[in-house]
């Protein structure tokens, strides 16, 4: 009886490295099939512009939005996945993203909106790893 126990013990002990490697391979495959979010080699860049209007609705000034918060939503999530602030040039950048669908947005003042702000959004899709995707310009309207 003890002989069969030692055989099963020693044969299972010999399979441990194989099992460990198999487990690591499965985790790597699952990790590469992940959805949108951090952990990749791609990025999103863009710019935010402030447009100022007078009382009559006529645009009288347009300039880069410095130090504005820009939000990033991963895929179909309903919560913010990341946030950055714009440079004095109005530019922003999100790095280390995986391939997939993303929404970038800024908050713009809105007197007739609930909470006094509205989201100005742009959706884009990263299709290649290692690439920097340019988002459409986001315009903040100030009256």
Task: Kindly list the characteristics that best describe this protein.
143 residues; alpha+beta; 2 domains; 4-stranded antiparallel sheet; 2 helices; 21% helix; elongated
Structure description:
- The protein is of the alpha+beta class and 143 residues long.
- The chain folds into two domains: 2-32; 38-142, Immunoglobulins (Immunoglobulin-like, Sandwich), CATH 2.60.40.10.
- It is 21% helix and 47% strand.
- Strands 1, 2, 5, 8 and 9 form a five-stranded mixed beta sheet that branches. A four-stranded antiparallel beta sheet has the order 4-3-6-7, with no helix packed on it.
- A hairpin with a 7-residue loop joins β3 and β4.
- The protein is elongated and about 45 Å long.
- The model is unreliable at 20-33 (pLDDT under 50).
Rg, Cα atoms, Å: 25 Å
* Highest CATH level, the class of the largest domain: Mainly Beta
Query: How far is it from the N-terminal to the C-terminal residue, by CA?
Result: 88 Å
The low-confidence parts are: 20-33
Mean pLDDT across all amino acids: 84
Relevant CATH superfamily of the largest domain: Immunoglobulins
Strand content: over 45%
Could you say how many structural domains there are in total?
2
By CATH, the architecture of the largest domain is named Sandwich
The main pleated sheet reads as: 5 strands, mixed
CATH fold field value of the largest domain:
Immunoglobulin-like
Order of helices and strands: HHEEEEEEEEE
